[in-house]
Structures are given as C-alpha cells and as structure tokens.
Amino acid sequence: MAELPDRAIVHVVDDDVDLGQSVARLLGRHGHATRAFSTPEAMLQAQPQQAAHCLVTDVMMGDTDGFSLAEQIRQRDPGVAIIFMTAWPTTANAVDAIRRYGGLDYLEKPLDEDRLIDAVAEGVAWSRRRRAALARIDALTPRERDVLDRLAQGMSNKMVAAELGLSPKTIEDHRAAIVAKTGASGSAGLIALMRDMRD
Amino acid sequence: MSRLPAARPAFALSSPRGNWRLIALLAAYPFLFKLAHFMASPWGGSHFFSLWYPAAGVRLALLWHVGARWTPLVVAEECLIQLLSGVIDSASPELFNHIWGVARAPLAYGVMIGAVRWVERRSRSELALPPMPFGLAAILSPTLAAFLAGLWEWLWPSVTPDLSTQPFATTIAAFLVGDLLGVLLVAPALLWLLGRVGDREAVALPSGARCAEGAIILGLGWVLAAALAKVEPDISMTPVLLCATWVGLRCGRSGAWVAIILSAAIILPWSASLLSTPTRFALHMGLAAVAMSAYLAASFAEAQVRARQDIARRDRILFQAERLKTLRAMSVAIIHEISQPLSTLAIETRHMAVLSRDEAPDLAEMRQSADLIERKATLLADMVRRLRRFGGRAVDEPSAIPLDRLVQDCLGIAAAEARRHNCRLRFDDTAPSPLVQGHEIELTQVLLNLIRNAMTAAPGADIVIGIHMSGNDAVVHIANPLRDAVPDHGGMGVGLLVARAIVEAHGGRLERVILDGGVQHSVRLPVAEAAHG
User: Fold this and answer.
1) Does residue B343 sit at the A interface (CB-CB below 8 Å)?
2) Are residues A172 and A183 both part of a single domain?
3) Number of folded domains in chain A?
4) pLDDT by residue (tens digit) across B152-182?
5) In sequence order, what are the beta bridge partners of B526?
6) Chain A residue closest in CA terms to B351
7) Cβ(B462)–Cβ(B423) under 8 Å?
C-alpha cells in the first residue's frame, strides 16, 4: 500500500456524487486517505487494490443497496468497519444495520459531522485491531483455533480437554503453540485477542 | 348575467353606512310610490286602477332589499301617502275598509317575501338557488295580494263592483296583471341599480353571439305578433311569449329584462290608445305572461349556471384535497430529497467557516465549496418552488403549457419517490413538445398520480414516459411492466378517479392499455391552437 501506515483508508459510497465527495473531503481533512464512489460496484472493484479500513455507505442506492454492499464486503474482507448513513431512517433498518450487517453506526442525513468523524475514527481503530488479530490467528491450525475459542471463553485446560475429547497434555501443547504464534500471553491476552476477533 | 342582490340576507344592513342607506330608502319610498302611481294612470280603467302598476315593482324591490321585517313600516307609509294625497277620503264612513284595502297588498308582499326568504335559507332544492327565489317572489307576491283581495271582496264586498258589467274575476285578474307587470318591469331594474350603488360584483352580460341570437328570436316573435295582431289582437302575444322565454333561457335575466321592457314599450303605448277594454286586458295579460315566463326561465337558467359553477368549484376543492393527500404521501420522499443536499450544504459551509479562520485561506478550496453550495442551494430552491406550487391553494388560470416541461416538472417531483421504489423514470426528451391549454397544477397532479401508480405497481422497474402526437391530440404515455402480485398500498383509487375527472374537464381522455407484459396509461389532451406551426 502506498499510503502511510498512520493514514487510514476510508471509502465513501453515495449515489449523490456531490454528497459523497463532500463527505470524502471532510474525512480527508481529518487525516484519512479517502475516496468517494457513486456506486457500490465501483467500490467493490477498488477494494482489492486498496483495502479500506472503514466504509461509509448510503443505505438507499440503485441496484445494490448499502446493506448488500456490506454483506459482500464482509465476505471479501472481514476487517472493514462499516458505517451506514441514510436519509430514510427507520427503526427496523437501524436495528438491522447494527445487528445483521455489523455496522458500527447508523447515521441520519443531514449528517451530524462530529458523530460521523468520531464513528470513522472508532471504525479505523477497530479495523486495525481486527486486522492485527486476524494476522496473528492466521497461522493457527483449525484445532488450535478450537482450543483458543474455548480458552478465550474462560475454560481451564482440563475443561477444554474434556470437551474436545483430548488429553490435558495435548491442550497444554496447543496452548503453547498458540502463544508462540500469536504473541498473546496468559488467559487475559487470549481473551483480548478473541474479543478483537468478535466485536 | 346581472346579479341582483338576491343573496344578500335581509338583515345584513347593520353597518352605520347600511343604516343610513336603509333610512334613506324607507324615506324615499312614499315619493317613489306616488311617482309610480302617476306613471300608471294612462292605462287605468273604470273598475281597476291601471293595467300596469309600477308602484308594486317599487314595493317589491324595497321589501326584497331591506327585508320582510320592514313590512309594517311600508304598509304604514302606503296608507299615509294615500290618505295625504286624498286617494282615501279621511271623512268617508268606509275609512277603515279603504285603509285595509290599501294595506293588504304590501302586507301580502311582505308575507310572501318573508316566506320565500325562509324557504331559501332552509331548502336545498333547485328552486332555492339564486336567482330563483327572487323570480318566485316576483310572481308569487302579486298572486297572493290578488288572491287576498279577491277573497276579501268576495266575503265582504265593499268596492261595489257592478258585477253585471264588469265580472268580478276580471277586476281581480286586472289587479294581478297590473301588479305582475309593474313588478317584473320595475323591480329587477331597481334592484340592479341598488346593487350597483352598493358595490355588488360586476354584472356579466351575455356574449355578443347570445345577444344577437336573442335579438333575432325576439324580432321574429314580434313579426309574428304583428301579423297576428291584424287578424286577432287578443292572442297576438303568444309568439312573443315563446320567443321571450327562449331569450330568457339563453341570455339570462338581463336579456329577459330587455325583452320584457321592449315588449312593454310596444304594448303599453299601443294599448293606452285602444278603446276596447277586453283587448287591452288580453294584451296586458299576454304581456304579464311574457314577463313571467321570460323572467322565470332566465332565473332558472341562471340558477343552473350557478349550480354548475358551484359543482366546478367543489371539484376544484376536491382536486386540491387530493393534491395535498398526494403531497403528504410523498412527504417522506421529499424529506429525503431535501436532506441529501442539506447534508452537503452543512458540510461545505462548516468547511468554509473553518477555512475562513485561516491566516492564508486556501482560495481554491473555498471556491470549490462555494460552487457546490450554490449548486445545492439552486437545486433546493427549484424543488421547493415546484412543491410549493403543487401544494399551493392557488387555482391557476388556464394557460398554454408546453407538455414536455410539464412532464419534466412531474419527474422532478417524483424523483425522490422513484429512488425509494428503486424505479428508474425514463423520459424520452427528444419527444415533440406540443402546447396544451389547461390548469398547470391540475395536469401536474394527473401525471404525478399516474407516475406514482406506475412506481407502486412495479417497484424496481423502468417506468417509460413519453409524448407522442395522435391527430390533433397530444398524448403523454406512461408505461410500466406488469408484476404478478401488485402490492396493495391501501389506496381507494380515488386518485385515478380525480385524474380522470381533471383530464375530462380539459376536454381530454384517460386511457389504459394492456401491453405485452406491461400496462400503459395515456393522457390524451387537445393541442392548443397556438401550437400549430
């Protein structure tokens, strides 16, 4: 990536080109590397070359709406924070935006600028944590992931061993491998790692 | 059409100016009454005062104008003036009988006018529509007065008519004919004058063509009457009766009144020179029939016109209500359409404010923001103008409208909803743009209704809108694909009914055709003359 590591990449998608660019310029002034797209398709095409940390998208757009864009981008890159904005705020959509589509925030138009900036900053931070966590976990075998999952839930080695039908000694080995691969130390570190994966 | 102050309630004269006017009218009445008496004297007979009695017209006009509750005063005034002028001999032993003879006519008029006004206020029948009540009062008041006089004289004979030479019925009939002629000739003119003085609405006269038609018809009637008069003068008024009625129906009360005056101007001088009382009586009877028939026909025709105008006005109110309903249904879409540019405006103005606080502001940045702000503000202003016009109360005057601009306007208003329904509105803007004559807002309403219906019927589809010519008609067509399940959006289809009513009021037609896999609505409107060439 050509961008400096401290400049997060933010993509803005809105079928109102002027508004999209306005929002992009606004976020640009707040230290992000931004790019505006007028269609979800254009944004999806650009994502592989320039992976965004945060996506700010309108909900109501032509053929692909903001929600289906969110689903598609999640499948391709689980490390993108998503913020929805809409001129059609409804409670049902707001709930869906957060619970179903994993949005970080659901902003009404006309936009509350401060809230948008805060949400994007939060999203960038989340994305970075998540990307780091993903990178650390990447090296784990599936079995090691199962073990990590349970350890992060607060289970002891014995409990994990009983549940997976393995010996405590094997769990002990897996745990050592996980710590070595992810750099997490102790139960607290493992729990923090899993939290970054889940939120 | 002249408008008599018929719709004025009898008790509306309560302003100080109205009070003075009332006093002046009531004070002038005895003199006018006496003057009218004097005018009638050449047509008198041995057993009746006159074959036309303009004083009755003055009386009716006054009572109609000031209200029936002033009847006692009018009665007193008439008795007093007859006493003072010596018509009633104050020394006569029959004094009270004579006074009663004078008093019962204005009393009957007052009672009848009061009754007609009462019915006018309560009834919803066609007869209660102005100017019918005045027409009825003008005919029924003399009838009641004559009937009362006849009944009284029959029960308690006092005038001592010599029934062997002068049939009693003839006396009463002469009374009736005289009063009727007096009322119908004088009262409308007096009330018209009073109306003019009192700033009533402008008098709408019949068109030139109608006037010409009336003149020809009436002239024809009088030619026939003149031919008949040579053979049998007694029945010579029959053709005039028919023709004057025609004139009344076609030209309204002003036309009828002119016809009546002209007829009277021919009959009255002629009959004054006649020696045969029966012929004179027959002619006056005929003239009274002409006057009644023409005036009633005119009143009825005008009442019909007024009723039609009323219905048209109510239609317009209905259109307006429907328009507001449409606007309300679109409000969510409109809020979307407004909040979108508003977001841009907010961001850019804030940005400019921040920039302006810099020591050396980035002018290029500022210009970019300013341009954007201007563009968005224009967009918002255009939209607000369109919406305000559409939701406004104003009923615009019909004008020649370029059809493609009308369609573009509708598309502008519907754009927000199209986004909501995920529809694309495709308009072929290379289409011809004929001019149509009409109410712009109402036609906007029609097109908007059809476009919105198309969008709800086929969400996510392309709605194709176009204009084409078909003979002398311009047609706007709106097509949408048919979906298997048309979502029920809770409408009652009133919008479509209103749309049809509006199109038909513009002399056009609303058509619906099922196409291959779709449905197309067409608004067919006649092209305005100015569009040719």
Assistant:
1) yes
2) yes
3) 2
4) 877 877 655 544 455 566 677 778 888 888 8
5) B473
6) A26
7) yes
On whether any CB of chain A is under 8 Å from the CB of B350, the answer is: yes
- How far is Cα A38 from Cα A58, in angstroms, rounded to an integer? 10
CATH 1.10.1760.20 fits B1-204, yes or no: yes
Confirm whether A4 is domain-assigned.
Answer: no
Q: Which domain holds residue A178?
A: 139-198
**Same-domain check for residues A124 and A158:** no
pLDDT digits (tens, 9 = 90+) for B366-384: 999 999 999 999 988 888 8
Residues of chain B contacting A109 with CB distance shorter than 8 Å? 336, 339-340, 342-343
pTM of the prediction?
0.59
A51 contacts B373 by C-beta, under 8 angstroms: no
Top residue of B331, B332, B335, B347 to mutate, by most chain A CBs within 10 Å, is B347
Q: From CA B452, how far away is CA B458, in angstroms rounded?
A: 10
Place of tokens 């004929």: B434
- Cα separation of B367 and B390, whole Å? 35
Same domain, A69 and A105: yes
* ipTM rounded to 2 decimals: 0.76
> Does residue A161 share a domain with residue A144?
yes
Tell me the angle at which helices A113-137 and A17-29 cross, rounded to the nearest 10 degrees: 70
Q: Is B283 in contact with B272 (CB distance < 8 Å)?
A: no
Peptide bond preceding B278: is omega within 30 degrees of 0, i.e. cis? Answer: no
Instruction: Report, in angstroms and rounded to the nearest whole number, the Rg of chain A calculated over CA atoms.
Output: 20
Same domain, A42 and A79: yes
Annotation: CATH topology of B396-533: Heat Shock Protein 90 (3.30.565)
Residue written as token pair 């009463």: B172
Q: How far apart are CA A59 and CA A78, in angstroms?
A: 19
- Stretches where chain B sits below pLDDT 70 are 1-15, 44-50, 158-170, 196-204, 275, 393-396, 484-493, 529-533
C-beta of residue A20 within 8 angstroms of C-beta of residue A37 = yes
Domain ranges of chain B: 1-204, 207-329, 339-394, 396-533
Residue A152, amino acid: A
Domain shared by A78 and A122, yes or no: yes
